[in-house]
Design a protein that fits this description.
Blueprint (H helix, E strand, L loop, with lengths): L1 H6 L6 H12 L24 H14 L29 H9 L6 H8 L1
Length: 116
């Protein structure tokens, strides 16, 4: 009877197998945001620059309601101010991310190609 289970053990974890295959193919992951193709540069509505992006990220971390410790350190931030930087989209580091994280990890180049 024990040998019989071993022959069909894959049936007991079909959902786990489907989940693993889906993750390898990038399925069941959060959808990627659609880029705003209608954004136009104007005096009243300038496109965000590096400083705006840095300021926005730091502000989101500093003021997020979940970035606070509980008693006895109530009100103390969990995360300090983040380090924010920029790198070219074709930097070889993104190939390393794909090896470490998995083939479902999108590089900036792949996202831009997908959006174009």
């Amino acid at each position: 009877m024990e040998d019989r289970y071993r022959h069909f053990s894959f049936l007991s974890d079909v959902e786990g197998i489907k989940n693993a295959i889906g993750e390898m193919r990038g399925m069941c992951l959060p959808p990627q945001p659609v880029l705003n193709r209608d954004a136009h540069l104007s005096v009243n509505n300038p496109l965000p620059d590096e400083e705006w992006i840095i300021r926005t990220i730091k502000d989101k971390i500093a003021n997020h309601p979940d970035n606070q410790m509980e008693y006895p350190f109530l009100g103390e931030p969990i995360f300090e101010e983040p380090l924010v930087g920029f790198v070219r989209g074709n930097d070889p580091i993104f190939d390393q991310f794909k090896k470490v994280i998995g083939p479902h990890h999108f590089s900036p180049w792949e996202i831009m190609r997908w959006q174009a």
